[in-house]
Amino acid sequence: MSTMLDRAGLSVAQPLVAFIERHVLPGLDFDIDRFWAGTAAIFAELAPQNVRLLAVRDQLQGQIDDWHRAHAGAPIDTEAYQSFLREIGYLVAEPDAFTIGTTNVDSEIASLAGPQLVVPALNARFVLNAANARWGSLYDALYGSDAIAGPPQPGGYDAARGALVIARAREFLDQAVPLKGCSWRDFRGGLVDLEDPAQFQGSRGRSLLFRHHGLHIEVVIDPDHLVGRHDPANIADVMIESALTTIVDLEDSVAAVDADDKVAAYANWLGLMRGDLEESFDKNGRTLRRTLAPDREYDVGGQHRLTLPGRAVLFVRNVGHLMTTPALRLPGGDEAPEGILDAIVTSLIALYDLRGLGRYRNSRTGSVYIVKPKMHGPEECAFTDRLFDAVEDLIGVERHTIKVGVMDEERRTSANLSACIHAVRNRIVFINTGFLDRTGDEIHTSMHAGAMIPKGEMKTASWLTAYEDRNVLIGLQHGFAGRAQIGKGMWAAPDRMADMLDQKLAHPRTGANTAWVPSPTAATLHALHYHAVDVAERQRERIRDAVPSLDALLTIPLATARNWTPDEIARELDNNAQGILGYVVRWIDQGVGCSKVPDINDIGLMEDRATLRISSQALANWMLHGIASAEQVDAALVRMAARVDAQNAADPAYRPMAGNETASLAFQAARALVFEGAEQPNGYTEPLLHAWRARAKAAGVPSGAAQA
């Protein structure tokens, strides 16, 4: 446990004090005493409000539980149910018509459409790769993924596969920047005669820069390159703008349970804002060094130059309102709300960018972009607005410099989305759907209504269709087009790029101008969808569509009169138990909050706490309603412990669970998430994960063994 130091009446862990006072404040010429006094004032004013909001959550959930118990066994009367939700304040009145007033937003967020990466803040190499994913090689993305059928042949460059890649890239160029009277397949170099000459933007050496749907494409011409020398036009690659924005995540994808963890995450954010973050690592016996990519310069004729950003515009995702942190304790001894600490520290660090003190600029318009997850309803959004007001005053920046991205991932937020947007209307730059968290909250909110349909069937449930559509249409209704992002959720299978290319085209077709991807390769391939769909035009078309009603959104996905077979039950139990254990064992034993975890079919999926929430809530619900007994769930956990052990056999840092279930902290944590799931606040996994991870660290389990 860290030594605690007094700062303006707060007890602050020594690592956090050292980080702020030695590494952050001096470079900003910010007075140390003024910072801590202002921080203490923010906690004094807002920490009690934070506690009250959490009490409201519990009160509402208790009232909903009681209502469902009182109506057990009867079909849900839609009108009576919604009337009850309005009576208790779960549903609020819609605000009058309004348009968001956010200003000073970078074009990557306000007006362009393209992929968005999410990366755990604790992994410096991943963070650098994600920040640098603004530009991606289409040749590499196609060659190294299953977007082109079959694996490359061993032994160096596979020319046959390369030919397929080149043909696919030429097809893309024909669609995005067509030549007049011929195909890029027939291009042999020389002058480029485009159907639309305005698409040509400049050159860099022999390479040519084009623009389509606001996104840039660089055709790299290099006769000395391995590929270029054999190409009739000496085209060596096609580089495309890929991840316009990246979210550096302090929340669901990290395991940060104490001051040391928090400081490690904050330090990577500081390195990004100063532009000096770097990481060295070994690969195939060679030491490689990662740094932030510089901007890209092009000749546009005469003495004029065009400079394009070399990096994605960075958001930082703070934690939500629920969790507290031992890194800072309030005057009464209670742990401080972690979300308040995140807002203060990440915004303070962003002053390096706002003042132009870093090597590169993140926001060219002078904004700080913070994603705020897991807010429940407009009152909590309004609290975030007040918090950001207070932080702006502390760090001395103009009102609404700090922008907010609202994750539309809780049922009370999606049901009151207009009111939530209204509460932060002058700083909102982003709304985003999240299937997994939203499903977890759907199950927990209606835990006592009855047994839910299986997890796999949720994707076709009526509430989910309404949820996804409402998010786009409500955003457009309030003026997001040309001002802010409307986002869609993650593609979780990083090895299945062919499927992603087939399915994720649906996201821009809805009118959403961004969607989450798990890797730089996925960002490059998903960028093709924003060339295939003119999102701005789709938004102009969709703004005329009617917003789906609350009736559909609030339809509870109950498995009414379902006769379950023993095999159906066993498959669902095993599927959820395997997913829970596969993720939790890395979280507890290795401190890894997000990684590619094999599912029950050995397909690698990017898992974070949102995945865990839905799986644990699904099993808790089935136990509560007698679909499965406690004994059946325990048996599934034991079976799947052996399965997960086998899937991780090659990991030297892995600690087996099978046969060691009682002593394995990871297994016990996984079991607690299920057996205590119905009582966890809003079904969240964080309280139990943090408690068990802290026990593991106290017992000497290494930190972050798989983070590198």
UniProtKB/TrEMBL annotation:
Kindly state which keywords UniProt assigns to this record, in alphabetical order.
Answer: Acyltransferase, Cytoplasm, Glyoxylate bypass, Magnesium, Metal-binding, Oxidation, Transferase, Tricarboxylic acid cycle
Enzyme class per UniProt: transferase
Say if the entry is tagged with keyword Protein biosynthesis: no
Q: In which residues is Mg(2+) bound?
A: E409, D437
- Which cellular compartments is it found in? Cytoplasm
Q: Give the cofactors, semicolon-separated.
A: Mg(2+)
Domain (Malate synthase G alpha-beta insertion) ranges: 157-189
Its Enzyme Commission number? Answer: 2.3.3.9
Pinpoint the Malate synthase N-terminal domain residues: 17-72
Annotated Pfam families? MS_C, MS_N, MS_TIM-barrel, MSG_insertion
Chain positions found as Cysteine sulfenic acid (-SOH): C594
This protein's superkingdom?
Answer: Bacteria
Sorted alphabetically, which SUPFAM superfamilies does this protein's record hold?
Malate synthase G
Residues annotated as binding acetyl-CoA are V118, R125, F126, S253, R290, P518
The chain positions of domain Malate synthase C-terminal read 568-657
Q: Where is the Malate synthase TIM barrel domain?
A: 313-541
Pathway terms, separated by semicolons: Carbohydrate metabolism; glyoxylate cycle; (S)-malate from isocitrate: step 2/2
- Subunit relationships: Monomer.
Function of the protein:
Involved in the glycolate utilization. Catalyzes the condensation and subsequent hydrolysis of acetyl-coenzyme A (acetyl-CoA) and glyoxylate to form malate and CoA.
PANTHER family for the chain: MALATE SYNTHASE G (PTHR42739:SF1)
The protein, known as = Malate synthase G
Query: Which gene codes for it?
Result: glcB
